[in-house]
Amino acid sequence: MSRAVTARMPLSRVLVIGGGQVALLAAIALRRALPHTIVALADAPVAPHALADLAHTTLPSLGQFHARMGMDEATLIGRAAATHRLAIRYLGWPSEGAEWLLAYGAVSEGGVSIGAALAAEEYFAEPGDALDDPLSDLDPALRFDPALHLRGLRSLARHVGVAAGDADDGADLIIDTRAAQAGGSNWIDWSDRLPGRSIAAETCAPALSVIDTVTASEAGYRIASPGRAATRTLTIGYAQPTVDDVPLSQGRIAAGWVDRTVKVGDAAAVFEPLGWCNLHLAICQIELLLELLPGRDIVPLERAEYNRRWALLTDRVADFVAAHHLGRPGIVRSPGLDHTVAEFVRRGRIAYVEEDSIGPDLWRQLLGRVCPQHSPAPIAIARDDKVQASLTAAHRARAARALATASPYPAWLADRLKDCR
Q1: Rounded CA separation 217/237 (Å)
Q2: How far apart are CA 174 and CA 393, in angstroms?
């Protein structure tokens, strides 16, 4: 006997609440994915501790997400004063005290990074496509002027048909991006593993560089991010905030999706900007929601699966940020970070973790600095010394080839700007 299948009704109306870039990115993405659904945006103030909404940069994932939404790199360079970043430089960090780079893109077994090689010389080139092209190892991140970026996102939202909405309009699904407030039974505190307690932002004269710089001190650290419109700096303090500072209470909500409301970005998690992961996490949460979009009648099991994967994703990004602080006394490791560190110290490898959005090359570079006692990777131990030396020489030659085809970044950008006008 056959059983009739009842068609599931699609979402009729989705409401996104927020006044920053996370809300606009979510609204545009949902409108692209649901062309027959009304997607409305209800404006709301952006809190001063909303680091995803206020971010002027993040990991390379933003460029890929922008492209899928219909905003390519040329548009950002021409209209949002965008520049590229190949690496982050750390000065006086507790891990070793010496200067070191955390570079984007592929890193060889011997630690050779094309991105780091170009960044050290302030050179840049367009990433390549062919496997034998050393520039295919590049994966640059973008910086942008936040006000210009927001203007472009608003224009794109209008273009794709995002409507104006009210905070309570009976939508089937609500996406809330308003920054969370710490405390309460729904709050999971991260203060034992993330020491930042305050944040202060300022801008100064513009500059061009493919490197951001993190400078450590006993009191905290300062991140300087050069850009065409301004050099933006964030100072994170370890002591309780003064009157002029913004308090930073780090943690996440217990569940990202409750009833009809999904919390995304700063509404879901608040944490310090080491590694520029705040906007990256928001993008990953939007992508997870797109993957698990419900129908008009929300099935509890779907919501539970989203919350399970959302928690893994969010906690793993927090682990990456917390790993920067392993050299500081009194830092508590989560079980996930403890396992990652133990595997790296013992075997020199990055263990697979479900919903890890941070690439192994970034993990390997970071842990190689904050865990100087780590063992070599098993493959490096098993390989013949002559073969290993030959491979290392080949990687260095590949980096030299990349450098030979690149240009000083100011000259490269000047040429690119001619094409963006």
Answers
A1: 9
A2: 54
